[in-house]
Structures are given as structure tokens and as C-alpha cells.
Specification:
Elements: E1 9-11, E2 14-18, H1 24-35, E3 44-48, H2 59-68, E4 76-78, H3 90-100, E5 105-114, E6 121-126, E7 145-153, H4 158-163, H5 167-187
Parallel strand pairs: 3-4, 3-5, 5-7
Antiparallel strand pairs: 1-2, 2-6, 6-7
Helix pairs in contact: 1-5, 2-5
Length: about 210
Amino acid sequence: MNLKNHFFERKNNVAKINHEDELAAEKLASEILDHLPNFSTRPIVFVCIGTDRSTGDSLGPLIGTLLEEKEIAPYHVYGTLDDPIHAVNMDAKLAEIKEKHFNPFIIGIDACLGRLKSVGSIQVGNGPVKPGAGVNKELPEVGNMHITGIVNVSGFMEFFVLQNTRLNLVLKMAKTIANGIFESSQQLPKKQDWPKINWDLETEQPTVAE
């Protein structure tokens, strides 16, 4: 489905999609495909940031776990409930990814806080995600583009707000985002398998005009 940009709410060139929109996954897939580099052999890597020790901050690893259960080649996914990427191990994990993949195009995924009316929205845009910004932590920026989910309200005691975010909302958003990523993987052109040409030198000799 081709969903043009005017279907999305935009601010500062960032698309905002309500996770309850019945076309949310399709819209997210369209946004992802619009941001990917054209005709590139760069590996596409999703880095899902967060921890299962905080309900609100579990959005990233929930998405990573859901993606592990899907066939999303040629994408690569890091950050799951079993092996999360968080403040303690982020530098090491990013170094590992860059060692394993040559010049990867990284899509950073993380939970964030925002205004009350934006809670439940998924944001997609160019540039990195800035993990830890909502709770005043200095962490490296991640990604050539980002997908963030606004899981609760910012402005006061953000750490406790994340701790007390409803899992129901986070899980619904994670499913929508994972479905959108899966949908985008299905729309990517697959690697073409050129048919093997077997030459029979005895029967395919060139004809010489007499």
C-alpha cells in the first residue's frame, strides 16, 4: 500500500502515527522505506534500546523480541528481552554491531516521554535517537534514523513515570511497530537470483557462413 506523506501528522520533518490507527503498521512501513538509502548494499540494522526492568523502557526490547519471531530478512535486529541494549552495555553493543556489519544503516528504536495528547504516538524521522535524554542520562546517540514510541507524559519525575507506565500500552505499541517493520521488509526488493546458464560447447558451436 502506498501511503503518501500528507496522510501523516508532521512536525520538524518527523512523522507521528497513532498506534491505534488501523493503518498504523502500513504507514510506519511506508515511512521506513522512504528513509532507507536507495540502491544501497549497506546492511540495515535495527537497534532496539531499553530494559525489561522498567515497564515504560521495555518498548525497545519487546519490539526486538517480536521481530525475532518474524522473517524480516534482509534486516538485522539487536536488543531483545533476552539480550537487551541499555545504559550499561550500550557502548560495547554498538562497537560489536559496527565490527560485525560494514558501514551499517542503523535505525534506533526507543521509548520516550511527551505531551499527554501525544501518548501512544509513534514517531519516525531522520537522525539518531537520543537514549536517556528523558531521564537525564548521557548516552551515545544511536542511528541514521529513529523510531520512538511516546509511552507516557514528560515533565516530572521521569524515571518513576517510566517505571509506572502501563504494560498494556507498551505491548500494543510494540506489536504495531514490529508489524510495521515486518511489512516494510516484505516490500523491499529481494535479491535477484540470476539463472545459471549452462553452455553445451559441443552443441552450441557458432555457425560459420560459407
